[in-house]
Design brief:
Number of strands: 30
Shape: rod-shaped
Helix content: under 10%
Oligomer: single chain
Strand content: over 45%
Radius of gyration: 25 Å
């Protein structure tokens, strides 16, 4: 113990320097420059923190305040505050007002996020909820993502659930569920089923499998392998239908070209 004041240190082989009013307990912990913080466990590193409570093994906690850390081999740093981190080998950097649970999460430059599960990545998320495995979220606002291997980027107010979806390019206000659906630059759509491909689609509903929509508005497409391009206020049902540059149509059956 060196150059500190009002500290309480318990255990064995702890190294404490420049701490103030802090409580350290356990084995082989290293602390420096902390104020009003508490650390328990072994082989943890606690540096430049304020009002932090941490317990576990081999956690690295640097430059944070008003936070709780519990678990093993977590790394939390970079002007992070008001955050809870529980689990194993999670990495949190420059995140505020967050809660992170699980293992192998990588969260950075985010605010107001709640993340749980395994191997999720969140960069620049704001008011985002994510639960699942291998989710990839980048520059997303006021959204919820659930499931496995979903990627959401540059989108706002979206709800994504299922597996292997890709939602991107300023998509706003859409619901995407099912498996392997793609929404690019969509607005206020509901997309379900499997293997749908939508680009610049607005206020539309899509269900079934392997349908492709481009530059369409207010359309309903249900079935398999249907295609719409520049279609408005229309409904397409069936299989292998093709509609292009048309308005106010109802297409049903199979293999039509309108």
């Amino acid at each position: 113990v060196s150059n500190g004041s009002l500290n309480s240190v318990m255990g064995v082989n702890n190294s404490v320097s420049n701490d103030t009013a802090s409580l350290i307990g356990g084995k082989s912990n290293q602390t420096s420059g902390n104020s009003q913080s508490a650390l328990f466990g072994q082989t943890n590193t606690l540096t430049n923190t304020t009002n932090v409570i941490a317990t576990g093994t081999s956690n690295k906690i640097v430059d944070i305040s008003c936070a709780s850390v519990v678990g093993f081999e977590n790394d939390i740093s970079g002007v992070t505050d008001n955050t809870i981190l529980f689990g194993y080998k999670n990495k949190v950097n420059a995140t505020r007002n967050g809660a992170v649970y699980g293992k192998l999460q990588d969260i950075s430059a985010s605010t107001g996020v709640v993340i749980s599960g395994e191997s999720n990545t969140v960069l620049a998320g704001t008011n985002v909820v994510a639960e699942g495995k291998s989710l990839n979220i980048n520059t997303v606002v006021e959204s919820a993502v659930f499931g496995t291997s979903n990627a959401v980027a540059n989108s706002n107010q979206v709800l994504v659930a299922g597996a292997s979806h890709n939602v991107s390019n300023t998509t706003v206000g859409s619901l995407v569920s099912g498996k392997s659906n793609v929404e690019n630059a969509g607005e206020n759509n509901m997309i379900g089923g499997e293997g749908q491909q939508t680009t610049t689609v607005k206020r539309s509903l899509v269900g079934g499998k392997s349908n492709t929509l481009a530059t369409s508005e207010e359309v309903l497409v249900v079935g398999k392998s249907n295609q719409t391009t520049t279609v408005k206020q229309s409904a397409v049902f069936g299989e292998n239908q093709q509609a292009s540059t048309t308005t106010h149509n109802l297409i049903t059956g199979k293999d039509h070209n309108v």
